[in-house]
Amino acid sequence: MAPHYCGVCRRTSFAGRRHLYSAAHRQRLREALGRLQAKVEAARAAIGGAAVRRCEAAEPERRVWCLCCGRDVPRDGRRGGLALPHAALLQHLAGPEHRRETARFWRENRAEAALRQRFLVSAEDYRRFTESLARALAAYEEREEERVREMAARIREAERRRQEALQAALETEPQPQLCAGPALHNSTTGHRGDISHDAEQPGPSGMQQAPDLNWMEPGHALTFIGHQETEGRGNIHTGARPPWLIQEEEEAGNQQQIGPSYEEFLKQNRRQLASFLWAGLEPWQEVAVQASI
Question: Where are the alpha helices (DSSP H) in the chain?
Fold first, then answer.
């Protein structure tokens, strides 16, 4: 007898298809179908009351292992940034491919025929689900629009309050006062205005006194201390040079030249050149060279 591989037990049986009637196979089949049935019942509960929720971009996709089809299927549907719970699984359970694979699985694994309808979704049930899902989407969009309107109203109210506060601050801002200058002479009375000597000025300590502007009383004159001699150089008020510039000019005039002058340097070069040439010159040529030097 040819060996038989059981996908439920994940083992090869050399007893052929008699393995399907064994107690171990039937126990594992019931456990596997029980896990799938729990997920199918959760999806069936959403037929009459579909829900919609916001889906994050990094949220992982939930999947369900379909024992009948032997593959993973997504559990929730996606529509833009929204998640539709159990929508993809219900669509798969109502599809013709799942119905065909379920019949094959039941036939190959000798499962109870009465349990097969629990793993299928009829076309009528799936139509009810789509209608419920459409109502849930409309309600969600309406809530979102209402939330956007409320948010816009709050933003407008905050902007209005900010404008009112700004306008109130501009209206109540005190006008800058002109600082009082020194007391002016009264042309009609001939007296000067009095300034308080005890006036305090604002500062860190709060105890600073205002400067006394009446330090020279009427009738008091400045004391003459005589002319100051500057040794014929004048001073800054007469347009004379500052002392430090005069000192630099004197030092520059006292400096003596170091080394020979330019004319002496040229004569020395000419003599050296002539000494190299006299060895091969005639007497009359030496006289001409000395004359040129």
Answer: 23-44, 87-93, 96-109, 123-172, 243-254, 262-277, 283-292
